[in-house]
Amino acid sequence: QWYRWLGIVLRERTITYRNIRTDTRQHLLVAIRSGSGKRNVRDCNKFLAAELVLSYENPTSLHPEQLVGKVVEELVPIEGTKKRARKKVPNYGYFNSDVLDLDECLPLLTNTRELNIQETRGYLCIAMDPYPYNQIAKRSVNDVNIRIQYQPKVSVSLFTQPIPSIPPEVATAGLLRRPH
b/e per residue, 127-136, with b = 16+ CB within 10 A? Predict the structure, then answer.
């Protein structure tokens, strides 16, 4: 955990060696049985994030839109009048936080059929790529000019129950080469 938190604090630094570029973030995959201290790890992460004035999230859903975000319409005041105008603004998802603990990731590591899970795995792969070479982009299907895009600086912990094996199509897709 020490190196992970050191990496979080220095997450915008790029480390370059010859043609290899990476950042200091360390993403964790934690396989832990029920009742073995997972809550303690999450509570420690939440406490440290608060002490370092960093944002911490522990979502209950792994839906891609909640992780990435979307563009929403807001009513904003028009200067000098009492009127309001509609304006499209990005509503960033959990990837825009500093520390992200994802609980109950067993389906993420074992489910190969559900498209939602596959899409979540794809977005996680991008978010865990080295910053700033990890741009996430999502555009509206109704209007190609409406899009949300950013480079996540988030450090991700994936918590799961111990599992006997991971399907080859999940293991070779890239998600598991990113956590340390």
Answer: bbbbbeebeb
Instruction: Locate 34 and state its tokens.
Output: 């029920």
The answer to whether 107 and 64 have CB atoms below 8 angstroms apart is no
pTM reported for the whole predicted model: 0.86
| pLDDT in the model for residue 100 | 96
Per-residue pLDDT reduced to its tens digit, 80-106: 888 888 888 899 999 999 999 999 898
- Percent of residues in the chain assigned helix, strand, coil, to nearest 5: 30, 30, 40
Q: Which residue has the tokens 């979307």?
A: 70
Closest CA to 108 of 180, 179, 49: 179
CA distances from 122 to 52, 76, 80, 167, 177 (A): 29, 34, 45, 16, 13
Q: How many Å apart are CA 81 and CA 10, to the nearest integer? A: 44
pLDDT of residue 127: 94
Tokens representing residue 18 in the block: 């010859």
